[in-house]
Amino acid sequence: MSTRAYTLGSLIVCAAAAAAYGQASDAGAPTQPPKIWDVSAAIGLSLTSGNSDTLNVNGNVQATRKWEKNELNLGADVAYGESDGEKNVDSYGGYAQYNRLFTERAFAYARVQGLHDGIADLDYRITLSPGVGYYFIKNEKTSLRGEVGPGYVFESQAGEEDDYMTIRFAERWDQKVNDHVKLWQAVEYLPDVEDWGRYVVNFEIGVEIQITKHLSERTYFQDIYNSDPAPDRDNNDLKLVAALAYKF
């Protein structure tokens, strides 16, 4: 995966965010009724031309709803890239997770997620997982939770279909630094229960800077590690994304 286009895109977007950051203000805004859904859409685009011609596009949509003792999180993302006319990024995926809180901190969940990565020769990987979770920290500024539960993986890699039982171990941390900046980090470990040397790790860390009430700059790093990749493919799929996000 080429990083030059991502680097250029990061510089452009971050520069725009830095220029507008000091001008953003929501003072005096009228009080709004509570929203049923929190929805945001982000897009990052970078182009280079000259000694090398590159194109990289990243899109991401997230939606969250919380009511009574229920939490619903939805997400989808897509990435496409070319370098000198040759495709070098081609992935899309999504997830849905429903949490049912038993107490203020303990909950049960049901989750489904899917991924396609043409460059990694992964036609699809679908994971179904119920489980339980616990918020170790839960307040207005900080959230830290852990999750564990059985799961089942269906995948087609290098033209070969397979399925296996797994145990999903996951952790997520969210930190609101101030009214304009927030951080997050998440990791997920999915081993094959019959062969613990075969596993997938999904990792993400990022920062979001609010520019206006609805517009923000989002920069994040993702790493998908597959201990058993397709032939002639790397274990790691790394992605660095800088994008502008709009909150509805």
Secondary structure topology:
Layout: H1 4-21, E1 38-48, E2 54-67, E3 70-83, E4 86-101, E5 106-117, E6 122-138, E7 142-157, E8 160-176, E9 181-192, E10 195-210, E11 215-226, E12 236-247
Antiparallel strand pairs: 1-2, 1-12, 2-3, 3-4, 4-5, 5-6, 6-7, 7-8, 8-9, 9-10, 10-11, 11-12
Provide the descriptors you would attach to this structure in a database record:
single chain, mainly beta, Porin, 12-stranded antiparallel beta barrel, 1 helix, 68% strand
Structure description:
This protein is mainly β and 248 residues long. The protein has one domain: Porin (Beta Barrel), CATH 2.40.160. It has 1 helix and 12 strands. The protein has one helix spanning 4-21; strands at residues 38-48, 54-67, 70-83, 86-101, 106-117, 122-138, 142-157, 160-176, 181-192, 195-210, 215-226, 236-247. Strands 1-2-3-4-5-6-7-8-9-10-11-12 form a 12-stranded antiparallel barrel. Strand 5 and strand 6 form a beta hairpin.
Summarize the structure.
The protein has 248 residues and is mainly beta. It has one helix and twelve strands; from the N terminus they run H-E-E-E-E-E-E-E-E-E-E-E-E. Helix content is 7%, strand content 68%.
- As residue ranges, the low-confidence spans are 1-29
CATH architecture: Beta Barrel
CATH homology group: monomeric porin ompg
Sheet of most strands = 12 strands, antiparallel, barrel
Order of helices and strands: HEEEEEEEEEEEE
For the terminal residues, how far apart are their CA atoms?
A: 32 Å
Strand content bin: over 45%
Mass-distribution shape: flat
Structural class: mainly beta
